[in-house]
Amino acid sequence: MIEFSLLTALLAGLLGGVHCVGMCGGIVAAFSFRADGSTPPFRMHLAYNLGRVSSYVMFGALAGALGATLKLAGFMPVQTALFVLAQLVMILLGLYLAGFNQWVLVFERAGGALWKKVKPLFQKLLPVKSLPQAVLAGMAWGWLPCGLVYSVLVSALAAGSATSGAALMLAFGLGTLPNLLGMGLFARQLQPFMQQRWVRRAAGLTVAGFGVWGLLTLIYPVFSKP
User: Fold this and answer.
1) Can you give the pLDDT at residue 37?
2) Model-level pTM?
3) What is the mean pLDDT of each successive set of 10 residues along the chain, which is 226 residues long?
4) Given phi > 0 = left and psi -120 to 50 = alpha, else beta, which region is 158?
5) What's the distance, CA 5 to chain centroid?
6) What single-letter DSSP state applies at residue 104?
7) Spatial contact of 169 and 56, defined as CB atoms under 8 Å apart
8) Residue 114 C-beta-side C-alpha neighbours within 13 Å
């Protein structure tokens, strides 16, 4: 059910804003305070996020292509296992967003070594002086080790094709836009609301519910029928 997967990824990005406030707040602040001021803030933040989402789409395409390779090689049990893994990770992600566990942070630690190699390039792009430079800085930002991104990337791996994987990460990236654009423009007003416990719990449990539903569609195919 690619439509359901895309909707899940979109809503995971949107509801994951409770994580984005803490994870990317420093990055957004760096963009806001280390720009040269010659370009309107909204255009600059839009360019940053265009670059970030572009990186996500590239990751999704690579993960989807790997999943397709496994499928073409006849590893259907592996494909099913990847789907189950994607739903379990989605459940863990939701519980993390709700504040019940931190197991998803294992993904962030695993990506830390890669970020250390990208970070110097990212820092050289600051202060940003043009929109193309903002896009490049955003692409580097997309490599920031983030449990939310990596969790959805597991779903892209299970998508079964490069196109589907890219579409999944695009949907996720678009879901994160309202929060991260809003953070860049209205950080002081947005952060207190997003950090309220009931907001975190509601968002996290909703995301976990997506994973539970995905498992139900596998166990009981009737759930996947319209």
Assistant:
1) 58
2) 0.78
3) 72 74 61 60 85 95 88 65 81 82 72 78 80 90 83 86 93 86 61 68 83 79 52
4) alpha
5) 14
6) T
7) yes
8) 12
Q: b/e map of 47-56 (b: 16 or more CB within 10 Å)? A: bbbbbbbbbb
Q: The tokens of 45 are what?
A: 């933040």
Q: Is the separation of the CB atoms in 67 and 161 below 8 Å?
A: yes
How far, in Å, CA of 80 to CA of 99, rounded?
29
Q: What is the pLDDT of residue 86?
A: 80
The closest alpha carbon to 55, from 158, 200, 154, 173, belongs to 173
pLDDT for 19 equals 65
pLDDT of 191 reads 56
